[in-house]
């Protein structure tokens, strides 16, 4: 893949994840926003909307022929064969309750082959912790805190479920799709399970602090940045059917050593 096409988009994605995340801090832990319920019942705030607007404006300024898809404002067509996938605040429920585990997500998809479109760039910033991670295909995954130099991110080497840490975004998501048994089965076999979820959970997996994350509900903007980060950190990222994709509607991100065991448990739950 020509560096001349990927590298400038990679540099912009890294900058935008951070600048957009910092924009959210103007509202975080303040009373300066109203929580609105979207048609699906999920919350949205002016911080989500302003942050996505910032991201879109900067992308269109730099790459006016690129397509964009975002959680808040839908799709904008492009002609370059590249598409940006944006989640301005992944973890809005954390954001509105003052929990610093939400993040800004920026991804770039290569759609020149519509049959095999791939996520080639992912950048994530956790503004409440001033921490982030980024990756591009073939360039590794890199983790940073504050202004420190990024260091290579690597998944854990845990081989046994009984020694593992399992994270997810919410237990309710399993129940919503009729897969409560999947959560209970996984949670009963690991060292411990926590809902340190949304994008922060995948950052934990990519940096080896958690061993796997399972989400029963995922949209493209939730998953596109995560897939290259997990894979470049040495892990596996698939849907529940073991397809390596960012648009399967659900996801498993792991250190790769546990992946088949996790999928076997999910398959055993006939309601999943």
Secondary-structure blueprint:
Layout lengths: L2 H22 L11 E2 L5 E2 L1 H17 L4 E4 L3 E3 L5 E9 L1 H5 L6 E8 L7 E9 L4 E6 L4 E5 L5 E2 L12 E3 L3 H6 L3 H10 L2 E3 L3 H9 L5 E4 L4 H4 L2 H7 L3 E3 L12 E4 L4 H10 L4
Parallel strand pairs: 3-5, 11-12, 11-13
Antiparallel strand pairs: 1-2, 3-4, 5-6, 6-7, 7-8, 8-9, 9-10, 13-15, 14-15
Helix pairs in contact: 1-2, 6-8
Low-confidence stretches: none
pLDDT averaged residue by residue: 94
Q: What is the H/E string?
A: HEEHEEEHEEEEEEHHEHEHHEEH
Strand content: 15-25%
Shape: globular
- Count, helices: 9
Write down the Rg: 18 Å
Q: Give the helix/strand class.
A: alpha+beta
Q: Main beta sheet: strand number and arrangement?
A: 8 strands, mixed
The rounded distance between the terminal residues' Cα atoms is 37 Å
């Amino acid at each position: 893949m020509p560096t001349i096409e990927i590298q400038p988009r990679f540099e912009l994605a890294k900058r935008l994840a951070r600048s957009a995340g910092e924009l959210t801090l103007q509202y975080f832990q303040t009373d300066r926003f109203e929580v609105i319920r979207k048609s699906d019942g999920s919350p949205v705030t002016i911080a989500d909307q302003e942050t996505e607007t910032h991201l879109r404006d900067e992308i269109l300024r730099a790459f006016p022929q690129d397509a964009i898809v975002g959680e808040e404002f839908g799709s904008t067509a492009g002609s370059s064969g590249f598409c940006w996938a944006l989640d301005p605040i992944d973890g809005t429920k954390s954001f509105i309750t003052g929990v610093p585990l939400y993040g800004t997500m920026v991804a770039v998809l290569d759609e020149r082959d519509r049959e095999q479109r791939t996520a080639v760039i992912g950048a994530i910033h956790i503004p409440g912790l001033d921490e982030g991670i980024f990756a591009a295909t073939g360039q590794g995954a890199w983790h940073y805190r504050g202004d420190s130099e990024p260091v290579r991110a690597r998944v854990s080497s845990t081989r046994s479920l009984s020694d593992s840490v399992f994270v997810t975004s919410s237990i309710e998501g399993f129940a919503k799709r009729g897969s409560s048994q999947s959560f209970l089965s996984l949670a009963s076999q690991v060292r411990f399970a926590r809902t340190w979820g949304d994008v922060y959970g995948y950052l934990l997996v990519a940096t080896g602090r958690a061993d796997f994350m399972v989400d029963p509900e995922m949209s493209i903007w939730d998953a596109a940045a995560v897939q290259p980060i997990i894979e470049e950190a040495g892990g596996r990222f698939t849907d529940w059917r073991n397809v390596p994709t960012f648009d399967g509607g659900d996801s498993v991100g792991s250190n790769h050593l546990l992946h088949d065991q996790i999928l076997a448990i999910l398959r055993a739950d006939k309601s999943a």
